[in-house]
Amino acid sequence: MVRLMKKSSGSVNERFTRAFDENYSVMFNAVRAKVGSFDDAEEICQELFLRLYQRIGEVANPRAWLFGALRLVVLEHYRKKGHAEDDIDRMCEQTPRSFCERSPETGMLPQEALESDGLFSDERERSLFELVAIDGYSYADAARTLRISYRQARYGFECAAKRIVSWLKGRGISNLEEML
Fold first, then answer.
1. Of 126, 129, 108, 112, which is closest to residue 167 (Cα–Cα)?
2. Residue 154's Cα: distance from chain center in Å?
3. 32-84, pLDDT tens digit by residue?
4. In the chain, helix, strand, coil percent, each to 5?
5. Left (φ > 0), alpha (ψ -120 to 50) or beta: where does 31 sit?
6. Is the CB of residue 146 less than 8 Å from the CB of residue 153?
């Protein structure tokens, strides 16, 4: 991929380089959390960014495009390795689309929000949110850790996330990039 970047020139190369620099670590962490394998995550990210490079002229928002293409690239990667379709679907559904995917740096929520009263219904919900949004746990892993069902974990996370978004909006932050 590095050779591809050096061969091309102009704004396409600059745009891809910027997109790569701003998104690679976030994408790698998201893929690794999804698949659990460092080697597979490297291969998937290489393919993901190669596809971005091929389409960079058509892509308005590289981060959104990368997250949109992620599931397809993971599916194709594991199909080539001969994994069952159900196993692949389960793997892709277990990692939530959390704040981590929307922020330029993983876990960039202000500590004040995490410590604020009223954002979480109880301490278990606060722990759930931290496990999923900050530590990169899947809903399934967080559910096992907290000894709750997958549905309880997903619902609890979504409720907490909505309250945090409202809390941030109340402080004039309409998207997480404004916090940086």
1. 112
2. 15
3. 877 778 888 899 999 999 999 999 988 888 888 887 788 888 888 888 877 65
4. 75, 0, 25
5. alpha
6. yes
pTM confidence score: 0.47
How far apart (Å, rounded) are the C-alpha atoms in residues 14 and 95? Answer: 31
**Closest alpha carbon to 4 in 68, 58, 47:** 47
Query: What is d(CA 28, CA 49) in angstroms, rounded to the nearest whole number?
Result: 11
Rounded CA Rg of the chain: 18
Contact 30, 94 (CB under 8 A): no
Output the six-digit token pair for 94. 């277990």
